[in-house]
Amino acid sequence: MSLRRRFLLSLLAVLGLMAGPALFAASRVLALRDIVLELRGEAAQSALAVGRLEAALVQVDRQQRAYVATADPDFAARMRAATNRAAGEASALRDAGHGELVDVAAVRISRIVEVNRRIEELVTQGELEVATDYLLDQALPEIDRARAAVPALAAAIDAKTGERAAVAKRSAIVAGTATTAAVFIAALLAAALAIAAARVLTQPVERLRLAMARVADGSLEAPVHLPYDRVDEVGELARSFRTMTQRLAELDRLRAEFVGSTSHDLKTPISIIAGYAELIHDELRGPSHARHRELLRSLSEQAQTLQRRVDQLLEISRMEAGRVQLGLEEINVRYFATELLHAFEPTARARELRLELHVHDAVPPFLVADPDVLRTDVLNNLIDNALRFTPAGGVIRIAILPDADRVNIEVDDTGRGMTQEQLDHLFDRYYQGAGLGLAIAKAGVEAHGGRIHVISRPGRGTRVRVSLPVRATHAPVPTLLAAV
Q: Three-state SS for 146?
């Protein structure tokens, strides 16, 4: 039975006395349905537009690089086309009613248009070296700033959706209140009918509101308790919401696959570039080639940095896809710590830093964990951060301490420290240049059933504490979507 028929039977039961209030309640319910349907459509379209905007910016980045490297006019055309797509998606978001939220991204895209024009001008004039410098110094940072605006835009759109969901909830409350007042005036029978109608409507709408809030928080799984089997408008709305959630989940899966496949495709050319740079460096002999060897060393270092970034993208893609399985084994704690110390000592000496290790006597001799994840994904990232942000003459201390049935690993530095705002976003990907390392470290710790905690004050250094169970189990790999 449809909602309209239920209201019609209620109106006939209470005769003319309930006509006015009941019609008012019905109009509020229909308005609520329209708001939620409109909200569902706008949220889906906005999410798709944001995804396409991000993909277009990635294409602009790739085509700019290709054009400067090859001077091929086809890449210039693709670069302009990708920029136009990005501008079109921003325009679509503005048309969807998000004008004030799109302003930052639109400004960045207009700046990219100017940058593209300058790149084409330099390449056309044959000034490829100047074009390369301009690409590195101006164009790529501009694209990075534009891409950095996309997550903020998505978050703002989610917040706006949440506000409209709150409006829908208030409309439901108003409808329930008006109906209840009319029920008390009409009689006990009218009261019973009004309460039943409110129960039929309010409960599924409330569940749907909570489900929308979870989607806004990044959970793209449709709840099983929504009334999908109902044959009325609420059931239709629930089924439409489920379809929307499934499509959003598929879009996110495709995004993760794109990042993973693109990162994998980049590994081979980066390795080849690094190999050729090293080969040329070895073949250049004599003082006349000293400057060339210096440039090749810089090229090799940048290739290695890019290789690490690609590896991090692959790792985070595998984590998001749930393909990471821990290889648990017994680790000799003291031997493991000593190896870690020796691995970073050359870097510490080169940066004029002192690296210290302390293993408490009461620490268990063995720890059950995945040594590769613990070393590469967790501790290497933490120690590398400490080395990068500690000035010359500073100290980095690694301490391994007992804690009941757990082991605490602390990385303590005398670096510049962090503000509270930085701490709040410390594990967010790419927050103010933080990159992926700390997000991967947190995921690796939580995959072991552990915890990670950071204490820091500006100018007084940072302490990162990793707390691991002595015998780790295969904990679910945590989702990283909330940082997209």
A: helix
Strands 406-413, 462-469: parallel, antiparallel or unpaired by DSSP?
antiparallel
Reading the block at residue 70, the tokens are 């090859």
Looking at residue 392, what is its pLDDT?
A: 93
| β-bridge mates for residue 268, sequence order | none
Which ranges of the chain have pLDDT less than 50? 477-484
Q: 426: phi > 0 → left, psi -120 to 50 → alpha, else beta; which?
A: alpha
Q: Is 67 helix (H, G, I), strand (E, B) or coil?
A: helix
The answer to whether 211 and 241 are in contact (CB under 8 A) is: yes
Q: Using CA of residue 236, residue 242, residue 248, residue 253, what is the dihedral sign?
A: negative
Alpha helices for 94-228 (secondary structure H): 99-124, 128-134, 140-186, 188-216
Indicate the pTM of the whole model: 0.43
β-partners of residue 410 are 399, 465
pLDDT at position 479 is 45
In this structure, what token pair is assigned to residue 471? 């015998």
Show Cβ contacts of residue 81 under 8 Å, excluding neighbours closer than 6 positions.
none
Give the span between the Cα atoms of 153 and 159, in whole angstroms: 10
pLDDT at residue 181 in the model: 66
What three-state secondary structure class fits 425?
coil
468 HSE (CA, 13 A, CB side): 33
